[in-house]
Write a structure and sequence with these properties.
The protein has 295 residues and is an alpha+beta fold. The chain contains 7 helices and 21 strands. The protein has one domain: Ribonuclease Z/Hydroxyacylglutathione hydrolase-like (Metallo-beta-lactamase, Chain A), CATH 3.60.15.10. The chain has an 8-stranded mixed β-sheet.
Amino acid sequence: MHLTIGSLRIDLIDDGLFELRPETFVKVTKGRNAELLYKSKFRPRIKVGFNSLLIRGEGKIILVDPGTGDKERFTERRNYNLDWPRRTLSVLRELGVRREEVDLVVLTHLHWDHAGACTTVGFSGQLEPTFPKARVILQQRELDGARAALSDGDDGYCADDFEPLVSARKLELLAQDDELIYPWLGCHWSGGHSAGHMVVRIGYPGGPRVMFPSDVLPTTAQLDLESGMSYDQNPAELLAAKLKFMTLAAQDQDVIVLVHAPRNRAGVLKQVSDREFEFEHIALENRNTKTGPHQ
């Protein structure tokens, strides 16, 4: 499943499913009673996907949120019924990409389901970077926030996923809210879900783009501006970020890739009112967008 923007090929990689309680994943912050989530249309557990991006072009190979990885995850496998083994690394091999060829990894944030694949157990038995030649881009606030959260017992983070990157001097920390990594790759702070959460946009200015909102808009269940997840750290910040980035995506007709959608993973947003959006699913197989200015 992929699309092409000018000289860039973007593959959507399915890392596998896991399970969450519906009241955890679909949280309405106001205006509705949470008991609605227990009605019969909701199952006790719901299947959630995980979708990474592989970008190839302009002489670069880039991964965005590579997923859980191959380190043993006994607690998470039990608690979330993780599909195992996870798929990102094997799909990379199927696509002809070796770990040593990856130039850059972009992490929207450091939760284990997004960042776990950045480290692996090497032949020495020690943790090491999975992609040995890659820079790993992260918001400075996210590293600080993850360390603080771990000290408070937050199990959404795992130090083994990122501290080896710090030790290996692989992390490149972004200080600004908006950073242009390449002319066709931008990272934009959103906050809300986590302290340093970022939204990623791919494509040249003036041309078609792909937006990866990550956990600002993980599935269509969070289209309502007041809706989110129990994992969101700052609901007010999240609401502002959703309105900002969903409005931008609708105006520019970005292709949206939803990180946790188990199906209907990509689409475009239509803004039907100041605070209301609709999502139109699109199929990505061999999809070519309009020609951008740099094709």
